[in-house]
Write a structure and sequence with these properties.
Largest sheet of chain A: 6 strands, antiparallel
Number of strands of chain A: 21
CATH superfamily of the largest domain in chain B: Alpha-helical ferredoxin
Strand content of chain B: 5-15%
Structural class of chain A: alpha+beta
Number of domains of chain B: 2
Strand content of chain A: 15-25%
Oligomer: heterodimer
Largest sheet of chain B: 5 strands, mixed
CATH class of the largest domain in chain B: Mainly Alpha
Largest interface: A-B, 69 and 73 residues
Helix content of chain B: 25-40%
Helix content of chain A: 25-40%
Distance between the termini of chain B: 69 Å
CATH architecture of the largest domain in chain B: Orthogonal Bundle
Structural class of chain B: alpha+beta
Radius of gyration of chain B: 21 Å
Strand order of the largest sheet of chain A: 13-12-17-16-14-15
Number of helices of chain B: 8
Shape of chain A: globular
Order of helices and strands of chain B: EEHEEEEEHHHHHHH
Number of helices of chain A: 15
Distance between the termini of chain A: 54 Å
Amino acid sequence: MPNSSPHLLIVGGGLAGLSAALHAAERGARISLFSVVPVKRSHSVCAQGGINAAKNLKGEGDSPWIHFDDTIYGGDFLANQPLVKRMCEAAPGIIDLLDRMGVPFNRTPEGLLDFRRFGGTMHHRTAFAGATTGQQLLYALDEQVRRHEASGQVEKFEHWEFLSAVLDDNGVCRGICAMDLRSMEVRTFAADAVIIATGGIGAIFGKSTNSIACTGSAQSALYQQGADYANGEFIQVHPTAIPGEDKLRLMSESARGEGGRVWVPKDGKPWYFLEEWYPKYGNLVPRDVATRAIHKVVYELGLGLDGQPAVYLDLTHIPAHELDIKLGGILEIYEKFVGDDPRKVPMKVFPAMHYTMGGLWVDNEHQATNIPGLFACGECEYQYHGANRLGANSLVSCIFGGAIAGPTAVEYTRASTAAGSPRPFEQEKLRQEEINARLFASEGSENPFVIWKELGRTMTEHCTVIRVNDNLRRADAKLQELLERYRKLGLRDKTRWANPAFFFTRQLYNMLQLARVICLGALARDESRGAHYKPAFAERDDANWLKTTLASFAPDADEPRLRYQPVDISLLPPRPRKY
Amino acid sequence: MPANTVRLRIKRQAGPQAPPVWEEFEIPYRPHMNVIVALRDIAENPVTRDGRPTSTIAYEANCLEEVCGACAMVINGRARQACTALVDRLEQPISLEPLHRFPMIRDLQVDRSKLFNDLRRVKAWVPIDGTYALGSGPRQSPQDQEQAYPLSRCISCGNCLEVCPQYNTRTDYVGAAVINQVRLFNLHPTGKMHRAARLDALTGPGGIQECGYAENCVKACPKDIPLTDSIAAVNRQMVGHLWGKALGR
C-alpha cells in the first residue's frame, strides 16, 4: 500500500469493526485493527437468532418501509428516523452480500434463504444460520478481512486494549493510546481517522448476557475525554436467559419465533400469559414488553416456578428434528449448562441485561461523534434502536453502521489537514503511564472485584426493568461511594506481564463513570418509554420527553451533565405504542 | 476434605521463560459452578490452600457459552473449554494446565495466533469481487446447507491441535481445524472456484500429509465437527488435484 493512502485505526473487531474495516479497505485505506481478544472471539459470536431484512420471500407483502415502521414503533419513537430508514432499505442488500460471502444461512426447498419470525413484527423477516447466526456472520466478515490482511492492507493488533484517544490542541482526534495486554507496553498510534466499534457494556451490570470483553471501558474513556454519550438510560433486558453464576446465557428470541411458548403453572394448568395478554403478537411481543410481563408474573403475582424467579420457555411441542436444524445451537447451550434436554422438558428462563440502546452520540449521517476525526459504529453508539431494540436488528445495524463509518472516515481523511506536533501523543502516553504507575503503587484496602460486585448489584437492582426515582438517587450515591472507594484500592498483583487483575482494575474505573451516566439519565427522564419504565410516570410523555439525552462529562465536578436534543421524526409521526 | 469446598491444582508459569509451578487452592463450593466461576472466585482473593497470597491466575475467556473458543485449557488431563467444565462433574482436586502445544504467555494463557495465521495460509474465505451490490448469492439446497453449517461452527479453540501427536511448536503442521476449513470453502459454490489454491497451500511442509491418523482430534472437538471425515475428504481432493497437476491438467 502506498504510504499516501489514508490510515485508519479501528478499535473493536466484532461485526461493526470488521464491516468498517472491509468497506474502508475497499476504498483504499490502510487499516490498523485493535481488539482486546482475537477478533474471531468477539462478542458478536453470541448473537443467535438471526438478522432482519425485508426481502419478502414469503409472499407476505413485507417491505423496507414496514421494517422501518416496526423498528421505529418498537423503539417507541426515540430513534432519529432518516438513518433508520436507510438501514432498513440497505438490509436486503446486506443479506445478499453475506450470502455471497458464504454464510450458511438456512434454506428453503427451492434453495432460497429461509426466514423466520421475530419479536415486534408480523412478518417472516429474519434470516438465520441455525441458532448461531452472529457467529456465522462474524466468521464471514473475519474471513474477508483476513483476505485484506493477507494482502497487507489490514494489520491486526489483537490483545491490545484501547486506553484513550489522542486529541490535539484543537480537539481533533489524531490517534489512540493503547496497551499491549501481554507486555503491558503503553503506546500511541497516529492515524488520519479513528473508528470506535467496541460493542456493549454488560459488565457494568455484573452479570448479563454479554461477553467478558463487553465492559464499555473504551466508550467511557472517550466520554471522559469529551465525547457526548446519548440515551444511556435505555438498557434492554432480554426476557429469556438461563440464570448462571458467571453469566446469564441468552436463550434466543428465535425459540419463540419458531413457536416456543412462555408459561407458568396457575391453578394446576399452564398459563400462557403472553398469549392471553397480547393476543395479536403473543409470545413475540417486543423484549421490553415481554420482560415486564415476566416481572409482573413473578414479583407481583408470585407465580414464578417453585417460588423462584423463573418461567418456562417451552419447545417440547415442536418436532425434535426441526428444532435441531433451526435452533440446535441454543439447545446445545441449555443442555451443556443446565443438563436437561429442551426437546423433552421446558426450559427455565428469566430476564437478563442484554443490550444498550444508548451509546456514543453520532450524527445522523456519517457515524461521526462530536470529536472531529472520531467515528463510532455498532452497539457502542446510540443511533438505530430508540428506546428499545427489536430482535435481529442488532446484526444489521452493526454491519450497516460499519459500512457507513468506514467510507465516511476515508472521506474525512481526504478533507482533513495533516497532524501537527508530536506533543499530544507524548502527553497522552505520559497521562496513561501515570495512571498505570498510580495503580501499581496503590496500597489501599479496597478490592476491585468487591467494588465490581457491588456495582453490578446496584445497577441490576435499580437501573434495569423498574425504575424508581428514590432508588435511582440512592443508586447514584452508591456509585459515588464506589468511585471514592476505588481511589483507596490496593492492587495486590504487581506483575508487569499479562496481569489480568491490573487490566480489570483499569476497566473498572471507566465502568463506574459510565454507570453514573445510565443512572442519572434514568433519574432525569420522568416518563416511560420502551425499555425505560417508571411506575410513577407510567405513560410516554411526548410533550416533555420526546428527546435524546446527551451526557457530557464535567471534569471539574467529575460527573455527567445532561442536556437534550430533539428527535428527527420527519418520516413517521409518533403514535401510541400498543401491542 | 469438606464437601462444601472445591479443590483445584493449577499449573502456573509467570512468563514464557519462567519455570512452571503447581499451586493448590480451596474455595467455597457454590451450586452450578464451572471452572470459570472457580477461577473468578480465586481472583477475588488469590490465596493458596496453605494460606499464601499469590498472583491472579491469567487465562483467556470471553463468551462463557462455548462459542468464542477462548477458554481452552487442559482440565483433569483433558483439553476442553473451561466454561462448559461443570465442577459437579469433575473429580477433585481439579487440575488445570495450559494447552501444551502453543507458546506460553502466562499461567493458563497461551499464544494461539498460529491457528489464525494458518487460516490465512489456506485462503479460508470466499473470494468475493467486492461489497457493492451484485445481487443474491448462489442458490443452495437445504441438504448442502446442512452439510456446510456443522463444518462452519469451528470456534478455533485449538483442542483438536492439543491432542494431535503431529502438532507441535517445531513442525508447521496446520492441523485438523484448518483442514476442515479447506473442506468447508471447497464445498461452497463460489469458494470451490479457488479450490486449487487451497489444496496447493496444503502441500509441502505442514500440509495435510503430516496427519498421522491418530484420530484424537475428532474426539476432542467441543462442537462435534466431523474432523476425520474432513481430513479424509480433503485427502481425496488432494489425490485428484495432484494427479491433475502431474498430468498437466
